[in-house]
Amino acid sequence: MSQMLTITRPDDWHLHLRDVNDGRLQTVVNDTAKVMGRAIVMPNLKPAIVTVAQASSYRDRILSLLPAGSKFEPLMTLYLTDKTSPSEIKLAKESGFVKAVKYYPAGATTNSEDGVTDIKKVYPALEEMQSLGIPLLVHGEVVDPSVDVFDREAVFIDRVLQPLILDLSEMKVVVEHVTTREAVQFVIDASDNIGATITVQHLLYNRNAMLVGGIRPHFYCLPVLKRDIHQEALIAAATSGNKKFFLGSDSAPHFLTLKENSCGCAGCYTAMAAIELYATAFEKAGAIDKLEGFASFYGADFYGLPRNTDKITLERSATPRQLPRSIPCGRDNFIVPFPQETDIYWKLVG
User: What positions carry a catalytic annotation?
Assistant: First the structure.
């Protein structure tokens, strides 16, 4: 007999949509809008979304692709650079649709070349954000080549994040896609204005999935999957009912040709079945009753936005399914959904 699970419509507090020039935007909008009420849209396009005017234009492109009758709301962000001014931050607040600013250390991840080179350079903009209550979304990794890739998040907390919140103690900060027990503990110990998103790939897998039996490029994301002790800490945090932790898929639609080559790019495309995958992770942890808070309540509460009022329904079948091997996207391109090997028993049915 199948099992039904009805929860308040969830939101995705960390999502990559890309843009219209290669077909990816339409694909991701379709996959996201069918289930998510809102999503925080990442600004690391080429060129990056660094002004409110650019964010407005990007928002219009997203809205133009929504299915008829869709109530999905894209929540826009600005890309923080060394040149971001307090006046642009003020415009962001006045816009009503820019909800956060994203901090990428320069060179840390996809399209981060224009990111911040020194956190001290952006303090005027950060101080304005603190005064206006605009959250700072942090990609928490150092780019120091002497630091091991598996340690970049923990070192970032020590070198950058701890001093930052000491200097700007009232700023709302989201530590995006946390991957280590050090990051989890930092968020737990911090004040209530510090939150974190957790991806489903980091709940379901550890680095063995990427490296055992050969290098598997579709498991490669940044921050990279860590060892099992960190995965266990993430599962415990996500399923704890702690309101500081909420859903942020970090879903990123990369083409097959960019993932499967001699220098494959980072990112996992989970938007096609994000809530089903999170349900799988929570069920494995024996905490399916905690999914609604994590997926539907805590992110909205942190951002000071109303919770969604409508519902979605998932059905658990006795027969598992797997995601398609690839999704046609644009002209002669394909996106590979993540993950290929996981049996998924949950399905969105309403």
Answer: 250
